[in-house]
Design a protein that fits this description.
- The chain is mainly beta and about 140 residues long.
- The longest helix is centred in the first third of the chain and has 15 residues.
- The radius of gyration is 17 Å and the shape is globular.
- About 20% of the residues are buried.
Length: about 140
């Protein structure tokens, strides 16, 4: 037991050392103040909303991705309540920027957790971006 704890501690310390600018960032994120940062194959990416998402309101999503990254599809799903798949209609603006809109449906839950799934071409794992709404 003690050896397992020691090895676990050494692993955590090793992961925390270094001054990498992307330390602690993975291929998913939680929006804070309408923005989030994540990694795509080790390269930085970001997303932001034009305004805080609210049910039955059109919201623009902008993705800044590593140059040449292609989005295959994107949709939003409720985490704490099934709301179906809400499409995010993204268009490529240039080599690194994608923009599109979505509209969340209203539901009986006052507090909703959502996940935005972004599927990228030539990538086996989707990227998940999480956010909440409160009515």
């Amino acid at each position: 037991m003690a050896a397992t704890l020691f090895i676990g501690h050494r692993f955590q310390v090793a992961k925390q050392q270094g001054d990498d600018a992307t330390k602690g960032i993975g291929n998913s994120c939680h929006f804070v103040n309408g923005r989030c940062r994540f990694l795509i194959q080790g390269r930085q990416a970001s997303a932001h909303f034009s305004e805080p998402p609210e049910p039955e309101t059109s919201v623009t999503l902008t993705l800044t991705l590593p140059a040449g990254t292609q989005v295959e599809s994107a949709w939003i799903e409720g985490v704490n309540m099934y709301m179906g798949k809400i499409p995010v209609l993204l268009d490529q603006e240039d080599q690194s920027h994608w923009s599109g809109w979505f509209m969340l449906g209203s539901c009986s839950e006052a507090f909703m957790k959502w996940q935005l799934r972004v599927n990228l071409k030539d990538t086996t794992e989707p990227t998940y971006l999480y956010f909440t709404t409160e009515t």
